[in-house]
Amino acid sequence: MIAPMDARRMDDRQGSIRKGRKFDQVLDGARTIFLRDGFEGASVDDIAREAGVSKATLYAYFPDKRLLFMEVAKGECARQADEALQVLDLTAPPEVVLRGAAERIVAFLSSDFGQKMFRICVAESDRFPALGQEFYQSGPLLVRERLADYLRLAVGRGELAIDDIDLAADQFAELCKADLHARLIFGIAAEATARDARRTIDGAVEMFMARYGMAARKLA
Amino acid sequence: MIAPMDARRMDDRQGSIRKGRKFDQVLDGARTIFLRDGFEGASVDDIAREAGVSKATLYAYFPDKRLLFMEVAKGECARQADEALQVLDLTAPPEVVLRGAAERIVAFLSSDFGQKMFRICVAESDRFPALGQEFYQSGPLLVRERLADYLRLAVGRGELAIDDIDLAADQFAELCKADLHARLIFGIAAEATARDARRTIDGAVEMFMARYGMAARKLA
DNA sequence: CCAAATCTAAACCGATTGGTTCAGATTACA
DNA sequence: TGTAATCTGAACCAATCGGTTTAGATTTGG
Q1: Which of chain C's bases lie under 7 Å from a protein CB?
Q2: CA torsion sign, A19 to A22 to A28 to A29?
Q3: Radius of gyration of chain B from Cα atoms?
Q4: I need a surface site. Which of A15, A34, A201, B153 has the fewest CB within 10 A?
Q5: Within this chain, do residues A157 and A193 fall inside the same structural domain, yes or no?
Q6: Is there a single domain that holds both residue A145 and residue A59?
Q7: What is the mean pLDDT of chain B?
Q8: Contact (Cβ atoms closer than 8 angstroms) between residue B69 and residue A154
Q9: Residues A113-152: pLDDT tens digits?
Q10: DSSP code of A177?
Q11: Helices A112-124 and A23-37, packing angle to 10 deg
């Protein structure tokens, strides 16, 4: 039951709203409960209990439930994005880079955190617009931008032929969901088997290369 | 304020649980409120008021809120699916058939109903598993099956070359979401412009044909 | 026209919620 | 040490919720 709060004691404490010493406890507890029960489903009392903090303290840090959730979501998405899209050798052939990217995307979609956060943000994003936008920007949009950066690189190298880079990036990300995402999100499958993942990833890479690889250009 | 309840007075009244004359009123009211407020967000009192019916009557038809929502979702999804995937000339060239299918898929994703139902089902599908499964079966799965049927046809005709038909169908459906679905779902864009829709649809058809069209086979 | 089926309105229940308040304990800091 | 900041715990609030009950009105069909 010991929360892993290692290297984040005095880092991102810029213009935030914290005042005291139990800031991290609150955030950790909130993350646990929100991920377990969703946004509406999570009660503030539960969060305070899990955090080992009085409700008064919690409300001293975060003026309301939404702000608290936003903070949790923001931090966690940034963390996931950082540690996911780091170690990719962008000089490798497109098939290799794309496969690596696909593996990371699939891993995120399949993860417990990815699924629950997606669910919550989708659910709440019309009565709570700021949340949807925040998630979109630090999720799908970020992935698209990184992918687009690489695609531009590969096009410059003559490895790929793409006119609408943004569209291509979105298409690839979307292909990585095929058959997997819906089954997970709607609870048809509890988790993605390695076989399913491989099938989707292979399919995505092959399709992308068929469309944008240089081999196809011989026909044009 | 007159609900359009035309040709469904004495049709699907098989083994259901109705007893009286205000069945349709309840369902119509429930649909309105559920679509406006979501599942958790909708209060049974609101539904009864909108339906012009007492709460006691409502509970005489539907033992609880979930059953009521399931009935609404089931009926509405079936209706949408029927009227959407009907008028397609399957003998036309693949580019044409696929474009037609893509247009319908995009239209559904962009529709108010499509968005709200998706949101609700995603949100509720882990604390309410039957709902997620019901939606998956009468939504994504149904689309995939119809698409797969057509693809098999086209492959038999020698117009396409596909080994994993189910995967191809999923890929196509997924490509139709590129850049559109996320922006709508997370409230970045209020609605899809005709230009955006065309871009996504063209992109999906071109990519699919590049991968599975007969032209590509010349290389293998 | 009467009796059975259906519907109504409103009161009611127990539970839960997000959020507030406050007197007093604990901590940090100088 | 002393004082200011921080934290506690529990009581409290108003509101909302899904669902039940009941006594009586309305409709239906024979």
Answers
A1: 5-11, 16-23, 27-28
A2: negative
A3: 20
A4: A15
A5: yes
A6: no
A7: 87
A8: no
A9: 888 889 989 988 877 888 899 899 988 999 999 999 999 9
A10: T
A11: 80
Q: Are residues B91 and B193 in the same domain?
A: yes
What is the pLDDT, as a whole number, of residue A18? 60
Cβ of A26 < 7 Å from strand D? no
B42 touches strand D (CB under 7 A): yes
- More confidently predicted of A81 and B155: B155
Any domain includes B186: yes
| CATH number of the domain residue B92 falls in | 1.10.357.10
pLDDT digits (tens, 9 = 90+) for B6-23: 333 333 443 345 577 899
Q: Which of A160-174, A197-211, B6-20, B167-181 has the lowest mean pLDDT?
A: B6-20
Give Cβ neighbours of residue A188 (< 8 Å, ≥ 6 apart): A182, B132, B133, B136
Q: Do A170 and B188 touch (CB under 8 A)?
A: no
- Looking at the fold, whether A132 and A49 belong to one and the same domain comes out as no
* A134 domain-assigned: yes
Whether A59 is in a domain gets the answer yes
- Tell me: pLDDT of A20 over 70: yes
- Is the distance from CB of B88 to CB of B105 less than 8 angstroms? no
Domain tally, chain B: 2
Please give the pLDDT value at position B15. 39
| Window from B2-16, B70-84, B99-113, B152-166 with minimum mean pLDDT | B2-16
Average pLDDT of the segment spanning A205-219: 84
Hey, what are A123's tokens?
């659910």
Nearest to B119 among A123, A179, A183 (CB): A123
Tell me the residue range of the domain where B55 lies: 23-63
CATH number at residue A43: 1.10.10.60
Residue A1 lies in a domain: no
**How far is Cα A55 from Cα A86, in angstroms, rounded to an integer?**
38
Specify whether B77 is located in the same domain as B37.
Answer: no
